[in-house]
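1st attempt posting a full record on here, be nice pls
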Amino acid sequence: MYAWLAAHSLGLAAQPVSGVKYAKVQGLVKHLLNLPDFMYVYDILLVGRPAEEGTPSGKLTRHLDEMVHHDRAADNELMSDEALRTQIVKLRAGNVARHMEAAKIDR
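the predicted structure (as tokens):
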């Protein structure tokens, strides 16, 4: 907290990083920072110059009418069972590939 306040008082931006407690992320961070195995990263705080002065830019999202449904979704917005299965397989394959890559670095 004090580091974040100190960065802010100097006009810098700071952003805490969560997820470091997970073994795969620990391995990636240790590899990136060239840390020995006996060290453990508890927290990470990214500090740097803000992208722009003032408030952060708004998130890029779809219009609310596209995301909010009253009572039910329109039938033309739903995937068929086969399309849903294909999408799940595709997403799982990407997750497995990322975990395999992280496991290589973790060793």
